[in-house]
Fold these 2 entries.
Entry 1:
Amino acid sequence: SPTCTIKVSGTTGTNDWYKSKATITLTANDAAGGYNLTTSTSPSYNGSSKTATQSDTTGTTWYGYVQDLGGNTNKCETENFRVDITKPTKPVLTITGDRTLHVVMKTTESLSGFKHFERRKANTSDAFEVWSGSTNPYEIDTDIVLELRAEDRAGNKSESAYTKHCNISGGTLVYKDSAPISPAPADGWYCQKDMI
């Protein structure tokens, strides 16, 4: 009788997800009568390839069907596996407040699900730290570049960097999405002295 095995390979992420396209490989012995590698539960033996790839899926099973010249058949299958090759959208940051920078981050992740944000001040040797909430204050007393990362439950990460330009010659710093100062920063973000 023919025999077969199926192997799934790819870059493993976290929580039993693959974070790259998965390659499915069928190995068949004594299958001169035909074989097939498919996601169908209906046996067939007219396959043309013993390898396949799987993109994003919340769960799938692949089957191998083999047949020898005598008409004997056999079946093998993978365990159900999941693939998420799509990174979360880059974190989008909005700000409010005065000398304390209040940050609100947003991202979109529709497959494996959102895990957490990470942050660090750029141009430092600091490690990224987990940002447990969607908002958190930063005390700013100089120009700063803030690096942000969003991570999904498969381990995919996307990064953004935001620059804040500040005039700290006196008074209280005020951060705004727009302000009547000239010249305007190239990145569209503003920092000005409070006029008290």
Entry 2:
Amino acid sequence: NSSELSKLYYTGFSLVWFVALAISVPLILYRSEVMDLLYTDTNLDAKRVLGLLMAAYFVKSTTYISGTLLTAFGRLKTMNLFMMITVVLNVMLNYFLIHQDGISGAALATLITQGLVAIGFILICHRNRLIELRISSYVKDLVLAIVLIPLCLVISHLAPFDIWYFNFALCLSVFIPFFFLFNFVRIKNIIREKWL
């Protein structure tokens, strides 16, 4: 029923949001160190691009949930029409931003486009009333990001360890208690209802 589907949707959305946040934030903050580790010949543009693409990955990750829901309900025509619009927008953004900022402009165009796709898919899901609108669930996910991003910024700024990847690991470890705090109870309840 609609209530069960909504519960699965919001749980999946929060989990994907959390995992994508845990992956992208440390990589954005330590993009220079990661690029220096992977490549012997790199530059500031490449490091900036990594940060922008990780941000694009974060916003795109939500479409794995909303896009799957739209596909399951047969809203392919709406999805394809919206995607065509964003492709045109992406081409236009690339034309202007690449001329202005080169490869960084292309990455920024990707971030903007993926952000619009993510927001658009969510709006289409709710406009078609495929699931219940629970603003509190989206707000909780935003609060999670608002809390964790500054914490990671503080860690990267203070750099308590001399070796950067220890600080990177510490930044990752910050997410663990919040995972259990925000999601574990909800996951446990679903498992109990479905299989126990």
